[in-house]
Amino acid sequence: MATKDNLTAVLYGIEDMRLEQRPIPVPKDHQVLLKMESVGICGSDVHYLVSGRIGPFIVEKPMIIGHEASGTVLQVGKDVKSLKPGDRVAIEPGVGCRVCSFCKEGDYHLCAEMIFCATPPVDGNLSRYYVHDADFCYKLPDNVSLDEGALMEPLSVGVHACKRANVRFGDVVLILGAGPIGLVTLLSAKAMGATKTIITDVVEGRLKKAKEIGADYTLKIEKNMSEEQIVKTIKELLGEDPNISLDCTGVEQCVRVALQATKTGGVVTLVGLGKFEMNLPLTSALIREVDIRGVFRYNNDYPTAIEMVKTGKANVKTLITHHYKIEDTVKAFHTAKTGEGNPIKILIHASADWKP
Ligand code: NAD
Ligand code: ZN
After folding, report:
1. Model's pTM, two decimal places?
2. Which CATH architecture has domain 7-151+316-349?
């Protein structure tokens, strides 16, 4: 490689993000070297910056940030048959051990040995160059942009959540929370055939975006609303009970509302990561045979996410509100942290030739 510039965003600890040069990595036989393009900021990245940890995952040594990313293949290892230089790809950031029973059964997202970009101590990919296992890089169709490619990571969470909930044509779906994850879950539910959708949030702007991307109903949750009132209003707006609810907040009140609003015999799917322990009305849910399902990231969902965008079933472009170049990573994280300018999805552009 002629260049030696591998500018990289490294989180050293709480409120300590630095840009520095790192050596350009060399791909192993099953890997590809990527010229990195668009990298989205996720709530978890901001959490590591502000708190230095998420549960048991603690930033104890400098860690490269970034995991919602796309890139262009520059070089392939000798065993790589699926990709060639010039291919534009979406990067699935977590790779399992490939030998445990979960990995062998395809549930690699549940692998205890998974290495996942920017989950300490594993480095992420907000850098000019990065290497990744070739089979976790998905070639983008010509009509899908590199910015959309970066959005395949959160969209895969929405796809996986809706697959877990078994959303199908005719379903009436309640989504709690219209942050990036609630919005990609809405896009996925619509693409999978949900015929009526309602989404809640406490922020008006987020509900406006939800309407724009196809929510049939929105409900702004006011501070003084009781749980009973929220449940009643959801049912009144829909004209019936939602048979599937997906919590995308992790907020106790929302999980409680989901358990009570869901139709008898329906499904509550929990995507939001909140308090470790919650006070929940479980008995009323169990005597109505409401199923409760967890969601952890995604497995084998990237191809579906890419197809949804390729065929126009999910417009993720409209979720992108802010663009920064990698040199301005600290500014980009400031916007994410403070919410100034009402960001939904912020992209950082890692390539030296990116132009706004
Ligand atoms: P976010 O914080 O941007 O979105 C949460 C939304 O919920 C916000 O818009 C907020 O205004 C809204 N909200 C807060 N209180 C509410 C209330 N009482 N009623 C209705 N809405 C309320 O976060 P995000 O990036 O969209 O992620 C959502 C959640 O999903 C987070 O908890 C995140 O950790 C989790 N997550 C889980 C997985 C997984 O694999 N399970 C993957 C990614 C993210
Ligand atoms: Zn494994």
Report:
1. 0.98
2. Alpha-Beta Complex (3.90)
Q: What is the pLDDT of residue 78?
A: 98
Reported as a single tens digit per residue, the pLDDT across 42-95 is 999 999 999 999 989 999 999 999 999 999 999 999 999 999 999 999 999 999
Atom index in ligand 1 nearest the CA of residue 274 equals 32
Q: How far apart are CA 162 and CA 49, in angstroms?
A: 30
Ligand nearest to the CA of 159: 1
User: Among the CATH numbers 3.90.800.10, 3.40.50.720, 3.20.190.10, 3.90.180.10, which is that of 160-294?
Assistant: 3.40.50.720
Q: Best of 273, 278, 299, 346 to mutate for ligand 1, by most ligand atoms within 8 A of CB? A: 273
Q: Measured from the CA of 44, which atom of ligand 1 is nearest?
A: 34
- Return the closest-CA partner of residue 310 out of 154, 150, 143: 143
Burial 126-140 (b: 16+ CB within 10 A, else e): bbbbbbbbbebbbeb
